[in-house]
């Protein structure tokens, strides 16, 4: 049963507040900006047009409402845990308390895959978008260094992906206070660009473009919601920051739920204006927001939108890398990975080796490995984490009703169930190949735990000492 040894909640909190804890430097505003930075990226600048053209038509508005509500179910569960357990590691740390060490490792290993692939996929997307922007100025990278390793296409390394990963790693090394300020600035500029699109675009809305409103029927709305759901899922990275928040019991629920609310409003507003400006059938393009502005001859605003898209993708990559570094830190501090990875700098208490490991992983994946087929693994990993956290809230309510909860999920026997139902529905609709790769990764992680993690677990060693 020692495979399922559970980490007491007070032990976790002592870890986070002791000498091996991270610097507490963030507030509710920083957390909100972190959440918006993670969620508003390719979803709003690319997915809005694709979902409208291929799935929902103008009823994409309803798709984003439904998917936002579904995501809110999981967000409420994260908010309850984050207010109770202000420690790094997100779903990994929560499951260590509720389900035990083996399950925590499985989930942590799953999240390593999620964040690692997300970093690489977003870095590759950033590179492609930035190169398109360069072409507007007549600049072109040599083909050999323009994309990941694919000799058939004449490409060998994606240089721009390595550059942005290196730059963001350097920002993370500067400390959480400095890096969160930089993220705040980028997110505010990004929101400003989106608001500019809405304000300019609303004058070119033609209500006739909203008819028919539901060209693909309600089934199209549901299909669009399933796709749009994946545009929201970055918010879980916010919970990785709980150890670095000054007042986590108060600020974590505010940051998680406020960021999701802002993103939902922005997605819906952009969808309303976008489908009102351009007939939905014309929106199946790589840059639908900029395309809509060019469609109405507002090319100068389209230029600003391109800048917003670059910043949008940059902040998504930044938050994904941040979440990965804190995950490595939490798992290593528990001894399930080498404890040296959890070493902090003396001045800023930054997990330097976790950042370096994240930098190496993201650089190798994004620079050399074509990740198109692996991108869905990011989704399955996130959905799995959502399900575990949602179940964990109910289990802890039953087993430990005495724990002080600064934030409680309302209708606790309904909302977590709806979160599990919606996430489970999306998981079973992923491709079989995605499930096979997910299970292979799961198997590799199980071997690593049995060979290394079980024997080096800090909790296990502590329990052995007490029993001697």
TrEMBL record:
Single GO MF descriptor: amino acid transmembrane transporter activity
Pfam families: AA_permease_2
Keywords tagged on the record: Membrane, Transmembrane, Transmembrane helix, Transport
Transmembrane segments annotated in the record for this chain: 31-53, 59-81, 102-129, 155-173, 185-204, 216-235, 256-280, 300-323, 352-371, 377-398, 410-428, 434-452
InterPro entries associated with the record: AA/rel_permease1 (IPR002293)
Cell compartment(s), UniProt: Membrane
Membrane topology summary: Multi-pass membrane protein
Major localization listed first in the record, in broad terms: membrane
Domain of life: Bacteria
GO CC, alphabetical: membrane
Name of the molecule in the record: Amino acid permease
Organism: Sporolactobacillus laevolacticus DSM 442
């Amino acid at each position: 049963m020692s495979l399922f040894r559970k980490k007491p909640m007070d032990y976790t909190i002592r870890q986070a507040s002791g000498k091996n804890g991270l610097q507490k430097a963030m507030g509710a505003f920083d957390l909100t900006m972190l959440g918006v930075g993670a969620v508003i990226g390719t979803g709003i600048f690319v997915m809005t047009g694709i979902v409208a053209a291929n799935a929902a038509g103008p009823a994409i508005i309803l798709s984003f409402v439904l998917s936002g509500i579904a995501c809110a179910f999981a967000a409420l569960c994260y908010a309850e845990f984050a207010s109770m357990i202000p420690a790094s590691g997100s779903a990994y740390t929560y499951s260590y308390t509720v389900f035990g060490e083996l399950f925590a490792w499985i989930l942590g290993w799953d999240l390593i895959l999620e964040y690692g692939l997300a970093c690489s996929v977003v870095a590759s997307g950033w590179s492609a978008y930035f190169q398109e922007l360069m072409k507007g100025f007549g600049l072109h990278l040599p083909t050999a260094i323009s994309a990941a390793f694919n000799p058939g296409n004449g490409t060998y390394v994606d240089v721009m992906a390595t550059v942005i990963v290196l730059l963001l790693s350097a920002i993370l090394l500067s400390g959480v206070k400095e890096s969160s300020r930089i993220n705040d600035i980028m997110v505010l500029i990004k929101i400003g660009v989106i608001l500019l699109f809405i304000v300019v675009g609303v004058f070119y809305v033609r209500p006739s473009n909203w008819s028919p409103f539901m060209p693909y029927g309600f089934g199209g709305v549901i299909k669009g919601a399933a796709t749009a759901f994946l545009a929201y899922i970055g918010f879980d990275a916010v919970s990785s920051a709980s150890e670095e928040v000054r007042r986590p019991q108060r600020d974590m629920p505010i940051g998680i739920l406020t960021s999701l609310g802002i993103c939902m409003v922005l997605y819906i507003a952009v969808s309303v204006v976008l489908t009102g400006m351009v007939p939905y059938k014309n929106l199946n393009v790589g840059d639908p927001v900029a395309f809509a502005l060019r469609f109405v001859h507002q090319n100068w605003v389209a230029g600003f939108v391109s800048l917003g898209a670059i910043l949008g993708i940059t902040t998504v990559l930044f938050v994904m890398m941040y979440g990965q570094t804190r995950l490595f830190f939490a798992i290593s501090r528990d001894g399930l990975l080498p404890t040296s990875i959890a070493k902090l700098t003396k001045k800023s208490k930054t997990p330097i080796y976790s950042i370096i490991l994240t930098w190496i992983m993201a650089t190798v994946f994004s620079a050399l490995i074509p990740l198109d087929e692996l991108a869905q693994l990011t989704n399955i990993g996130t959905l799995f984490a959502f399900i575990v956290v949602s179940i964990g809230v109910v289990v802890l309510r039953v087993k430990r009703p005495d724990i002080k909860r600064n934030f409680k999920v309302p209708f606790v026997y309904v909302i977590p169930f709806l979160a599990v139902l919606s996430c489970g529905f999306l998981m079973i609709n992923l491709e079989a190949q995605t499930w096979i790769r997910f299970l292979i990764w799961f198997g590799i992680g199980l071997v690593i735990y049995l060979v290394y993690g079980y024997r080096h677990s800090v909790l296990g060693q502590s329990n052995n000492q007490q029993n001697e």
